[in-house]
Amino acid sequence: MPISLDAAGLRRWAERAVAVLTERRDDINALNVFPVADADTGSNMAFTMQSAVEHAAAVPADAPSNDLAHALARGAVRGARGNSGMVLSQFLRGVADAVTAEGVTGAALAAALRTAVDYVLGALADPVEGTIVTVLRAAAEGAGAASANAGTSAPARPGALAAADLSAVLRAAIESATEALDSTTAQLPALREAGVVDAGGAGLVLVLAAMLDVADAKGDSAPGDTDGPGRDAQSRTFDELLERGARRGGGADTHGADTHGAGCSRAADAEIEAVFYFGGDLEALAAELRELGTSLVIARTDGTHANVHIHSHDAGRVIETAYARGEVSGIHLEALPQSAPAPAHGERPALRRTVYAAAPDGPVAELFASAGARVIDPGETVEDAGDEDIVMRNGTRTRTTAGHLVDAGSLVAGIAAIAVYDDNTADTHAAVAAMEEAAAAMRVDRPREDSLGAIMSTCRDLLFGGGEQITILSPLDVNADALSAQLGVDVMALRVPGMRTEIGVE
Fold first, then answer.
1. Which of 90, 178, 269, 358 could crosslink 398 through cysteines, CB 3.0-4.6 Å?
2. Cβ–Cβ contacts within 10 Å for residue 196, how many?
3. pLDDT of 18 higher than 50
4. Alpha-carbon span 443 to 466, nearest angstrom
5. Cα distances (angstroms) measured from residue 80 to each of 87, 332, 356
6. pLDDT of residue 236
7. Among 69, 65, 63, which Cα is nearest to 14's?
8. Beta bridge partners of 218
9. 238 vs 329, which has greater pLDDT?
10. Conformation bin of residue 379: beta by default, left when phi > 0, alpha when psi is -120 to 50
11. CA–CA dist 268, 48 (Å, integer)
């Protein structure tokens, strides 16, 4: 009997996509030379899809298709990693918007891909051709043409489309996407130099092929079985592209190259990949983050919530800005390889030293972690520090048996110190001196009570001595924007339950 890709089919597709991406993870990682040659695109896409599957696990088996699709999309957005993971999450948003209660039809898939293109272009600060964006657009065009040319024969039941019809649209999408993927090598200098196709685009083709496999199998094969009916085609296509890349000059051993290319003006400075979930004014956040880094992607769940991805030399300021604008959670940070000197293929540059920061669990700890510090419990004695390591006391009784102690007298002073820390400074004594100077320059006070009126009064008192920015750590929910408008300076406010309010001015 003719069938659509119903809720059970969507679930099988998502599970199969995880299996295929996981199986091909190393192959996709090896293609990853743009925007940063950090060999993790396959891993990021597999992680993103796995997050979608895990989130959807709570959806009942008898739930309608659109409920399942929305759960997959929410899970993908919350768990998205890397540029390609973010784009993949927006594809799943497109699917969720197009699916009806009955299931996925060829027309719905075409609509999903068109919508996904719009979502992705809205999410990327600087879309670059020759990437997964190009491949996604080609898939949408191929699916749209096939859907428009499809026969008009009535389906066997309302809301259903023959699996062959859905397959026809999928095959057209995959064919167009594969052609576009093959062309990416010539579109970007980084890909051309390495002789490879775009890694994210390759992953997207495999995700579409996984859906085709489920549609063609008519639900007969196991979710994690990567040897279904569509397997030969998807494997052959992928292997052919890899082989052509190798003949072109190949391999992805290009870690020493400038791989940021068009639309990325600060490649050499992009040291940290920051990913976090944000709730608040997305447009205002985007406007500020554009000045702080490259590869900015804001993958939305809705009008006020999104997973945010950025490469920045100043991750601490990125996170501070986000906290000042709204609610932040799920912070994930990863050091990116430097363009020079070039590390060996498959390696990441090691940090020269470890910075330990004493902080209570919660937003303050996340802030220090976002700047690359290893967070320890307040009052803890650090016994495994090396001679070049740095320990930040931050107003606690924290001690160290070795290394260098930065005796910041408060958490807000510690925030000022970590903000100026630069791991690229070879001289540890110089790095410590800069941190101590920043901590000492922070004028700190505590209001007489934890109330908004007392906080305002203390801020005004501190500003009598001048200052351009106020940092507030408080158990209260302080409106940073409103306070900034009243005081005429930048305000960063973190809500930290269980602590007495600290205010610093610099």
1. 358
2. 29
3. yes
4. 10
5. 9, 10, 28
6. 52
7. 69
8. none
9. 329
10. left
11. 27
- Region 483-503 average pLDDT: 87
Q: Which of these, 410, 418, 476, 382, lies nearest to 272 by C-alpha position?
A: 418
List, by residue range, all CATH 3.30.70.250 domains of the chain: 268-338
Tens-place pLDDT, residues 343-373: 343 343 344 689 999 998 888 888 888 777 8
Locate all alpha helices (DSSP H) within 106-230, ordered by sequence. 106-123, 132-148, 163-187, 189-194, 199-217
Paired tokens of 28: 């996709």
pLDDT, average across residues 145-163: 51
How many angstroms separate the CA atoms of 388 and 391, rounded? 10
Q: How far is CA 372 from CA 253, 320, 368, 369, in A?
A: 27, 14, 7, 5
Mean pLDDT of 79-87: 85
- CA 237 – CA 245 distance, rounded (Å): 12
Tokens of 248: 């072109």
User: For 268-338, CATH number?
Assistant: 3.30.70.250
Longest dimension (CA), the chain: 79
CATH class of 7-248: mainly alpha
What pLDDT is stored for residue 36 in this prediction? Answer: 64
Residue/partner pairs of 143-146 with CB below 8 Å, 24 or more apart: 143/106, 143/109, 143/110, 143/113, 143/169, 143/170, 143/172, 143/173, 143/176, 144/110, 144/113, 144/114, 145/172, 146/106, 146/110, 146/171, 146/172, 146/173
| Dist. CA 269–CA 316, nearest whole Å | 14
Beta-sheet pairing, 374-376 with 305-312:
unpaired
Copy the structure tokens of residue 501: 């309010």
Residue in the block written with tokens 């749209």:
144
